[in-house]
Amino acid sequence: MENTDEIIRKYPPAREYLLSMLHELQDADPGKYLTEASLTRVAEYLQLNKAVIKGVADYYSMLSQRPRKKLLLQVCGSLMCHHAGSAELYTRLRSRYGHHPLISLAHCECLGQCQQAPAVQLDQEAFSGADIVELIRSIDKKTASDENS
Amino acid sequence: MSRNVSVEINGKVFSLPEKTNLLKSLRDAGFDVPGLCYHPRISPTGACRLCCIRIEGLRGISMACTLEVKEGMKMITTDEELENLRRVNLEYLLSEHKDEEDRSTFDELAELARQYGLDKPENRSLPNICDALDFPSDHSSPVLTYDGNKCIKCFRCVKACAEIQGKEVLSMASRGITSYIVAGFGVWGDSECDGCGECIQLCPTAAIVEKPHRSEIDVYNSEKAVRTTCPYCGVGCQLELWVNNNKIVRASGTEGLMPNDGRLCVKGRFGYEYVGHPDRLTQPLIRKNGKLEPAGWDEAIALVASRFGIIRDTYGKDALAGYASAKATNEDNYIFQKFIRMVFGNNNVDYCTRLCHASTVTAMIRSIGDGAGSNSIADFESADCLFVTGNNIIETHPITATYVKRGAAKGQAIIVVDPRYTPLVRYAKVWLQPKLGTDVALLNGLIHVIIREGWIDQTFIENRIEDGMQAFLGLKELVSRYDPAETERITGVPARLIEEAARIFGSAKNAIIATGMGMSQQVTGTHNVFSLINMMLITGQVGREGAGINPPRGQNNVQGATDVGCSPMMYPGYIPISDKENRRRVAALWNTDVEKLDGRPGLTTVEIVHAAHEGNIRGLYIMGENPMMSDPNLNHTREAFEKLDFLVVQDIFLTETAQLADVVLPATAFAEKNGTTVSSDRRILRTRKAVLPPGEGRQDWQIILAIAAAMKSDIGHYSDEAAIFDELAKAAPIMGGVSHARLENEELQWPCPTPDHPGTPTLYLDRFNTPSGKARLFPVDHAEQNEKTSTEFPFLLNTGRILYHYHTSTMSRKSEVLNAFANEAFVLIHPADAFKRSLLSGQKIRIYNDRGSIEAIVKTDEGVLEGELFMPFHFTESRVNMLTRDELDPFSKIAPFKLSAVNIEKVTS
Amino acid sequence: MKTPDAKRRILRSGKTLWNLADALKAGSYQAFEKALGKDTQEILEEIFLSGLRGRGGAGFPTGTKTKAVHTSNTHGCSYVVCNADEGEPGTFKDRILMEEDPHLLLEGLLIASLAVRASHAYIYIRGEYGRSIERLQTAIDEARKASWLGEGIRGSSFSLDIEIMRGAGSYLCGEELTLLESLEGKRGYPRIKPPFPAEKGLWGKPTLVNNVETLANLPYIMMHGAAAYRSLGTEASPGTKLVCISGDVKNPGVYEVEMGTPLKDIIHGPGGGSREGDEICFVLLGGAAGTFASVSQLGIPLCYDALRKEGLSLGSGAIMVFGKNASLKDILQNILGFFKHESCGKCVPCRTGTYHLMQSWIGGCTNNQGERKKLLPQLVAEARNIAQTCLCPLGQSPVMPLESAMKNIIELMD
Ligand SMILES: Cc1cc2nc3c(=O)[nH]c(=O)nc-3n(C[C@H](O)[C@H](O)[C@H](O)COP(=O)(O)O)c2cc1C
Ligand code: SF4
Ligand code: SF4
Ligand code: SF4
Ligand code: FES
Ligand code: FES
User: Fold this and answer.
1) Measuring CA to CA, which residue among B87, B207, B220 is closest to residue B147?
2) How many structural domains is chain A composed of?
3) Subunit contact A39:B185, Cβ cutoff 8 A
4) DSSP string, B757-772
5) Which of A110, B82, B146, B298 is the most exposed place for a label (fewest CB within 10 A)?
6) Domain C240-322, CATH class in plain words
């Protein structure tokens, strides 16, 4: 809660900062999602009703109201990536990370990396084509250090 | 009004009002253009795409609901392709919708489906996808249910809530095909929804339906729907009562009529249950051997007549008094005051107005001439500055508040003056939070800044204020010591905010003032309002359209009861009794001898109680009032009533007061009456009979006439309420031109002196209603309050109302819906005080002082100041008026409900 | 894959210039400084004469829009919004611009804001574009420190603040009016047009909404003048265009090409043609909301009007090339799935229609190829119905790929 308020108060109490607040709250949450408690605080801060905040959080596909794991691994399912075999890539990643304690796996729309399809995004970082190997290395590094700590 | 322009529709020329919504205009002109998401009371949405038409010069298909009428427009409203597109979209809608007949509501979708031959599933070409989508439902609200399977995502409910009621409690949730409506996080009952039901009224399908009586409503086979006026607050909302088997099963707002244009609040929509409640009084009761026993009317009337007669003969006519009713009609109240004046022969007639706005009215009459709001309700939306003081308008005048919120959405600057947080603060530019009892100082401080900055209206002062600049200089002299620093010292309001508020008010083009009980219910009530009026006058914010001062009235007919003469000083129409000429005029109308009309002012409410305590009042006739809840210092009131020789209470329930009576007479509720009431904006509104009274309940005026007759007095014969009104119109010049017949199709605000007068939306346009025609300044100084905190009683207790209950809650607490929202007495305390006293929200505490002691649940709330408490007065189990004082404002005789020193302690049980 | 330097308007040097020092060396902010010395009318006229057309997809003349905002700005309050929501599948030119040359965009925004007298500009950017956001933020901070942004820029009376606003995953929010709703912190629902943003945009104030690439053209126009700008491209589509080549080609990527260059020259030139052992079978132009072109149509020059005449679209500049192993069936399903997912749900035909389209196609996919060929026209008819009455351009989109597939490449249906 403390943390929630700190984040919220960084922004002026104006509705145009709602999406920015929600992004930041979600990233800061240990469950990487928007809890009802934090949505309520945002509602109070912006003097809006809860449904208005929920409506916005619901609309945007990057925002989640269900807990997720620490890292979000998204596989582009759009045209070019699909054509380049993203479905198979997804299956492979799922067998590798499907039950990983630190990774949530999801589909997403075109990541603007179509020149090297299929593309994958790990949190805010994009990987594509040949980088997939790099990705797996990077995931392993991130999760290993985390599992140790 | 907009001018008409010619447009071509399907090859023919029509004349339609320019710039109005095209779909609405087409429909008004008789074209049956379908459309489910449009509603004239909300902004166009363009969601259903059924109102498609073809406009020459515009590419493709257009939606009529998203366009305005323009000169020379040429359009086609129907052809094969358009009908086909409509059918396609209708099929789309039906494919995500579950068909289920629900006769409790008009289903516009079902109706259209029938029109397009799509009512039978076998005629449709698309598979139904409802089950696959698995839409949520929500049954958690006390007033309604939401069924996602019936929802066509037209946004009407969302906009009803946001645009009409200004609440924005609802939203569409999810996205795309799985969209649905949510309140809160998906649990309506946990949301901010306050149950006004506007969404129910606007939902075109059976997706949102009210809960109460749902199974008893059959819209296709309803007995009748009677248009009448809401029995609760002073807004005067117009509503329709749906009746089945002599039972009210639904109330819905009447669209297109002021003051509410279809809007209702939770009380108006769901508070009608009391009418048919089993606790209603059904026959007269007479106290026998200390107990109230049922009796016949003849016996009861005879007893009342003889006991009043004995008291009059033994102690003289001054030993009798009456309480009229802010909840009864004008007709009932007119007859009541006539009874007191002709039968009791004195002017001891008053009612609870003394307890709410008497000080306001006193100050207003002296300064500007009329004790009523100067504006129309719509001005609350159009003004560019609104100064709301001591008035929790969102909870106590919910529909007036909708205008305010709509104004705020358009950029109206709202200044809230309240020691306690009220929901309006959320919409306000500035919130001034003065310490209790420092309003005069605060207002003088604002006036100081306004004068210093030169924001005064000199022309107005010179032309419309008595003694012009000279009077102004007197005020200037007086406020000179209230510089912002000094004002901050007295009131606790930061000087910066005082400057800011003064700037907003002082530089506003059109400002409206709304003043409430926070101002009036103080020992300095009259002074508070004088000070407020001073500020208004020097800035010239009155005397023209869109500016002025308004005291929103608490009960449905507080305004009317005084208008029709239930005042110890005034005859109907604010005619002073003290003037012999006036008495002569009234005597002639009433067919009586002028000498029989007493020229001495009568006693006011609290004075009547004092007199009873002292043995000077011996008999009291109370019609539809419950002083045992609403009067201050209740223990004292009880003692006074117990000392009476004879107490008659005429009511619809066995109220706290009726329980003390010697005779109880069963009267009728609003839905059983014909008559009129007057709203806060002086609108004369019709009450119409929808159901029959239970048992032997009788009309109030008939009971009064029966008692008069039994006392061998002839106070008139009337065939019906319309006839009473006709006499009232003769007595009260302000209503001289009004009749029940005119009210059938006209909206009239008094003064309306002649049958061809259109009524008066704004007062004082040409002159003030004072003898000189000019307004008067009454400079007043801040005075320290007598009631102070001490170590023994360290808290100041403030009292007030909440949205869900009404006055003494005799009516509202009969409603399951209203009780579901609030059914427990509570007291608000600042978290810091709660911490000091180790109190947690939800704990029970005792609140006490020398006058009494009550218990309630404590709630911490940052909206009250430290050292102050707030408590609503509706709850009989915690009658906060046990603690309030009956010390009076010397001018208006109002009691200081807003300020009592108390202490608290935790109740350990 | 080289664009000759003489034909560069936007990809200035082909190098990354994301720190201020490098950007200044490449000439950043010189055009803006020049503009500071001109009066507003001159700037507006220069943009107008350049004939620049919006690069966000619609190709609306930028000069006309800028003038309209300027005219509506009677109360001294207007906004400039950069549309950096790049969500059209197959499009990634704006990302490259923002990552590699963010100061170019800032300079474009400065010029546009100067032209419409705005003192506040927003960059509404796709939430997923982490690196672009980072680089833009750095660029803004650097520019502010060096007084290229902020109060009284370069000692003039002109002030501008630029704020980055992150989108959160909605394709429709790239549509300008929806973008404004989203920017105001609301659900991404399109507004009813008219009024257009130039009249009533952000918070009801006149607002200029321009694509990243559009704005990136302004510095050149200011620096070298409209005539120089028009020396490339066609009469109706002057200048250059960034294209995003993806799919079964040797060198997928973003290239700057002259307007009017035939498609096949682009695909075979910078795109490098099909890979070893493959051949080009069809092309999807403009993304999911685009159109399918057959190989025989690739002689058409890349410009708004020539393509439109052929029933094709330039759109955002996506050129998605499909080779032998492409499955049209799958591609259509993917496209329909995309629209179903991205429909905001506000209006009936698109909300339910995109769902039914998808369902029917999935149903059809279990069937044989012949049935699918017959099903396609039915879907086209349904998509046409949707397009006729839906509220915003998203609902008008599914018909474009469906219809062009039916007309141009139905024989390739698998
Ligand atoms: C569904 C939809 C998505 C769009 N997405 C984008 C986008 O991501 N980026 C963009 O610049 N324009 C997009 N547009 C176009 C914008 O509505 C608008 O035309 C553009 O921002 C105008 O800028 P321009 O004149 O510079 O092209 C989209 C339009 C639609 C209908
Ligand atoms: S609940 Fe009713 S009013 Fe609200 S969107 Fe659904 S159908 Fe429309
Ligand atoms: S606002 Fe007042 S008059 Fe209107 S419905 Fe509510 S209680 Fe009744
Ligand atoms: S066409 Fe689609 S995206 Fe556009 S408003 Fe309608 S439902 Fe929303
Ligand atoms: S289609 Fe996957 S990144 Fe563009
Ligand atoms: S009534 Fe016009 S779109 Fe629904």
Assistant:
1) B207
2) 2
3) yes
4) ----SSS-SS--SSTT
5) B298
6) alpha beta
Paired tokens of B83: 């009908």
pLDDT digits (tens, 9 = 90+) for B165-181: 999 999 999 999 999 99
**Cα dihedral: A67, A68, A70, A72 (round 10):** -150
Question: Are A54 and B185 inside 8 Å of each other by CB?
Answer: yes
CATH superfamily membership of C5-230 = NADH-ubiquinone oxidoreductase 51kDa subunit (3.40.50.11540)
Question: Nearest CA to CA, how far is B81 from chain C (Å)?
Answer: 10
Residue B174 region, left (φ>0) first, then alpha (ψ -120 to 50), else beta? Answer: left
With the most atoms of ligand 2 within 8 angstroms of its CB, the residue from B205, B209, B210 to mutate is: B205
Residue pLDDT, tens place only, C161-216: 999 999 999 999 999 999 999 999 999 999 998 899 999 999 999 999 999 999 99
In CATH, C328-412 is 1.20.1440.230: yes
Residues with CB under 6 A from ligand 6: B 23, 35-38, 46-51, 63, 65
The CATH number of the domain where B884 resides is what? 2.40.40.20
Torsion of Cα atoms, A59 then A61 then A64 then A69, to 10°: 180
| Closest Cβ opposite residue B171 in set A36, A52, A61 | A52
Whether B207 maps to a domain, the answer reads no
CA of B403 to the centre of ligand 6 (A): 26
pLDDT at A137: 85
> Between chains, do A59 and C187 touch, taking CB under 8 Å as contact?
yes
CATH code of the domain in which B405 resides: 3.40.228.10
Q: What is the pLDDT of residues B105-160, one digit of tens each?
A: 889 999 999 999 999 989 999 999 999 999 999 999 999 999 999 999 999 999 99
Q: Which atom of ligand 6 is nearest to the CA of B44?
A: 2
Residue B58 CB neighbours (<10 A): 12
Give SS3 for B859. strand
Question: pLDDT tier at A2 (50, 70, 90 boundaries)?
Answer: low
Share of chain B above pLDDT 70, in %: 99
Q: Which ligand is the nearest neighbour of the Cα of B228?
A: 3
Establish if B209 belongs to a structural domain: no
Which positions ≥6 away from A128 have C-beta within 8 Å? A111, A113, A115, A116, A117, A118, A119, A120
User: In A, which residues are within 8 Å of C323 by CB distance?
Assistant: none
Whether B127 and chain C come into contact, CB under 8 Å, resolves to yes
- Termini Cα distance of chain C: 33
Same domain, A142 and A77: yes
Of ligand 3's atoms, which has the minimum distance to the CA of residue B235? 3
Q: Which phi and psi (to 5°) does residue A77 adopt? A: -110, 10
The predicted-structure confidence for B14-49, as pLDDT tens digits, reads as follows 999 999 999 999 999 999 999 999 999 999 999 999
In-domain check, residue A84: yes
Structural domain of B866:
795-906
Same domain, B652 and B699: yes
The answer to whether B148 faces chain C, any CB pair under 8 Å, is: no
Best residue among B157, B168, B193 to mutate for probing ligand 2, ranked by most atoms within 8 Å of CB: B157
Tell me what pLDDT residue A136 has: 84
**Residue in B169, B172, B175 closest to A49 by CB:** B169
pLDDT of residue C5: 67
ipTM of the complex: 0.95
Ligand 2 atom 3: the closest Cα is on which residue? B203
Q: Contact, C286 vs C213, CB < 8 A? A: no
The Cα-based distances of B867 to B788, B798, B828, C66 in angstroms read 12, 11, 11, 59
Residue type, C130: G
Range of the domain at A123: 71-148
Q: In this structure, what CATH number is given to the domain that contains residue B687? A: 3.40.50.740
Is the CB of residue C217 below 6 angstroms from any atom belonging to ligand 1?
no
Q: Would you say residue A147 has pLDDT above 60?
A: no
Q: Report whether residue C103 contacts ligand 4, using a CB cutoff of 6 Å.
A: no
Nearest ligand 6 atom, CA B49? 3
Nearest CA in chain A to C346: A59
